[in-house]
Amino acid sequence: MKKSIIAIVTLLLLVACDKNETKGNLHITGNIKGLKKGTLYIQRLVDTAFVAMDTIIIEGSSTFTSNLDLKSPEMLYLFLDRGTSNSLDNNIPFFAEPGNISIETTLENYLSNAKITGSKNHEIYEEYRKINSTFTDKNLSNIEQKFSALKNQNAKKVDSINVAQDANVKRKYLFAANFALNNRDYEVAPYIALSDIYDINIKYLDTIQKAMSPKVAQSLYGKKLTEYVTAAKKEN
Question: Are residues 147 and 227 in the same domain?
């Protein structure tokens, strides 16, 4: 009888441990090299405010883990509270999806050294950001040239730069629209449409919305894009 009770208690403990280990469907592991003390917040954006999903206290070890329940792939943010600054350099965006995700970075270059693996949506988003940055760089170059032309009162040059700026913006928007369309089977597609080209001609958003796979259409951003397009069509 005593042996039976011990066996039952042991089994219950094993089940409890197993449930604890598998809590949630998103398992995040990470390492912030050089960090000895601080607080990490895994956040989501709700309307225009960041809301914490998990709080992790770092004391000595630079590694961390978090188990969350994610209903749909979503852009999350790993915010580091250094206690001195709340700049954008302290916030790492990562496109989370159910499964195992790893976040590796350093304290010195928290944002720029961030390496996220384990999420296909994030992999696609990084590809998008890499190409999209070329349009941003071009725009900064145009602004610098325009400032110089204005300083020298070169009206002809200013007009030329204005034309170049408009063309760059159009290419940027068309690239984003085509990229979202080509990745219609991933939740990152409606996210890009909503975050980067929400003010493009509604026909492009309508095309992206209609091209989404059934799975993506039922996702968080898929539903938001459908609502946005529906509302925009009514206004027009």
Answer: yes
Mark whether 60 and 35 lie in a shared domain: yes
CATH of the domain at 41: 2.60.40.1120
94 touches 122 (CB < 8 A): yes
Phi, psi (deg, nearest 5) at residue 117: -130, 155
77 Cβ partners below 8 Å, 6+ apart? 42, 43, 44, 45, 50, 91, 92, 93, 94
Among 55, 97, 103, CA closest to 75: 97
Last residue of a domain, one of 49, 82, 117: 117
Q: Which residue from 183, 194, 144 is spatially nearest to 164, judged by alpha carbons?
A: 144
pLDDT tens for each residue of 50-77? 999 999 999 989 999 999 999 999 999 9
DSSP secondary structure code for residue 100 in this structure: E
Domain-terminating residue out of 69, 97, 117: 117
* Contact predicate 95/80, CB 8 Å: no
| pTM, 2 dp | 0.86
Give me the domain span that covers residue 97: 2-117
Strand partners, 155: none
